[in-house]
TrEMBL record:
Keywords: Arabinose catabolism, Carbohydrate metabolism, Isomerase, Manganese, Metal-binding
Protein name, UniProt field: Arabinose isomerase
Boundaries of every L-arabinose isomerase C-terminal domain copy: 340-479
Source organism, top-level taxon: Bacteria
GO molecular function: L-arabinose isomerase activity; metal ion binding
Protein's organism: Victivallis lenta
């Protein structure tokens, strides 16, 4: 079972083709053939949940100058340049000089190879997609920009090239939502967690996202309006029980079978959270608040886990312990469609050469290995409160971790690693865990990870995606360290 995405994936993506205007009179029909190639690329891109802006054929410096204000006005997240045939870099230099977004050169030739026995200049020009790529990358560097990325391959039937186009569209999804996101920040950092301190203005400077300062007390009137016997709560209980198992306790005396009281509290708080997210127009939330012992507010803020996990899986990353940096990491992973659970390292399993990776919540339920579990917890270790806890292990197979940290100069840094989620028992403690295996061995890896200066939290996703995360970091101008 999967939680349906409620935050649609989208991005504003531009495309223009390049060629040389001299060719059109020399070779009748060539322009039409090249524009037909561009239509094939447009169809490929449109299949990946992007809003496409076509700026036509740019085949000389005058047309580049005319296209530039249109490109800038489109408020794009990413720009593709379709290298349809040879083109002079005058079609590109003034455009790339002004771009503050990733630019990708796409060189997809129709033929797998020239038909040498029947070759002609016309045929060569139809397949000259790569010819001016070095000219374009070199001119980009002269304009003070990084050399653009290149997608190179065949126009049709090329799985590698198609995967690269899809990857760039996922990067565009990340960039689109990061710079428009409204991320709630509720409560305060745990006093002793110095690595959680984050300047909201620095978040906007680095990512574009706006940090919305939220008051925990704002939840109270919403909570009071929710009828525990009403249709919303009844439906939320049904959703919870249809999605989660509720087994008997095993070995941890802090756990018990989910109680009716904890189910009701989790359901009412989940409804409250969904209403609050809508009211504040939030795309995510990082929170920590303790409230007065025995108060209604404490009951609310200590029972976010189930509702937050449902929201996280629906596309709204919800992050505990006031960790706005990991909320951003979770949003990045969600928009890459690889999950994004809130995680940290737990005990090492030296017998299996693994380390338990998990947290007490919230989690991305769509990457669970099988049916997730809810247990009632008599207390949350290290924090006030009690209630329902979510427990599962991550889908077995490749995994990627992303920690968003800060260096001594206050600049953000990505720390990334790839590993494997392995089969193996997890402690029945009402927390999510998975056995993470990392090369060359768990002892060496954990030392290398710690030496990179991460925060102790990170986002956990499925699949190996370090190079995709590197593309995101490069687009944002953020330092990245991949632990190999």
């Amino acid at each position: 079972m999967n939680i349906a995405r409620r935050k649609p994936l989208t991005a504003r993506v531009g495309i223009f083709g390049v060629g040389l205007d001299t060719y059109w009179e020399q070779f009748p029909g060539l322009l039409d053939d090249l524009l037909a190639k561009k239509e094939i690329l447009k169809r490929k891109l449109s299949a990946h949940s992007v809003e496409l802006f076509d700026f036509g054929m740019v085949d000389n410096a005058e047309r580049a100058a005319a296209a530039l204000p249109q490109i800038e006005a489109a408020d794009l997240d990413l720009l593709f340049v379709d290298m349809l045939t040879y083109a002079t870099s005058a079609t590109f230099g003034m455009i790339v000089r002004r771009m503050q977004i990733p630019v990708v050169l796409v060189a997809l030739q129709p033929l797998p190879a020239m038909d040498y026995e029947h070759a002609s200049t016309y045929m060569q020009l139809c397949n000259d997609d790569f010819c001016s790529v070095p000219e374009f990358t070199g001119v980009a560097v002269r304009m003070g920009k990084k050399a653009p990325a290149v997608v190179l391959g065949q126009l049709e039937g090329d799985a590698v090239a198609d995967a690269e186009l899809a990857e760039w569209c996922r990067v565009a999804h990340v960039l689109h939502d990061l710079r428009r996101a409204r991320l709630g920040h509720m409560g305060h950092v745990l006093e002793a967690m110095l690595d959680m301190q984050t300047d909201p203005a620095a978040v906007t400077a680095a990512f574009g996202a706006h940090v919305v300062q939220c008051e925990a007390d704002q939840l109270l009137p919403i909570y009071r309006e929710v009828d525990p016997a009403g249709a919303e709560v009844t439906e939320m209980k049904r959703r919870i029980l249809s999605f989660f198992d509720t087994p008997d306790p095993v070995s941890d005396p802090l756990t018990e079978k989910l109680t009716e009281a904890d189910l009701e509290t989790a359901a009412v708080v989940a409804v409250t959270l969904e209403r609050y997210i809508a009211l504040k127009h939030l795309d995510g939330l990082a929170y920590y608040y303790e409230a007065e012992p025995g108060s209604l507010l404490r009951r609310i803020v200590t029972n976010f886990i189930v509702g937050n996990s449902l929201l996280t899986a629906a596309g709204f990353p919800m992050c505990g312990e006031f960790d706005i940096k990991t909320c951003i990491a979770m949003l990045i992973f969600d928009r890459l469609e690889i999950g994004g659970s809130f995680a940290e390292f737990h005990p090492v399993d030296f017998a299996r050469d693994t380390v338990l990776v998990g947290h007490d919540g919230p989690h991305h339920l769509n990457i669970a290995n099988g049916r997730p579990v809810i247990r009632s917890l008599k207390k949350y270790h290290g924090k006030p409160g009690s209630g329902a806890g979510v427990e599962f292990n991550i889908r077995t197979g490749p995994i990627t971790m992303l920690s968003v940290s800060l260096n001594a100069e206050g600049k953000f840094k990505f720390v990334v690693a790839e590993g494997e989620s392995m089969e193996g028992p997890i402690p029945p403690t009402g927390n999510t865990n998975t056995h993470g295996k990392f090369k060359p061995d768990v002892r060496t890896f954990l030392k290398r990870w710690a030496a990179a200066g991460p925060t102790h939290h990170f986002a956990l996703g499925i699949g190996h995606h370090a190079e995709t995360v590197r593309k995101v970091a490069d687009a944002l101008g953020i330092e990245i360290e991949v632990i190999c």
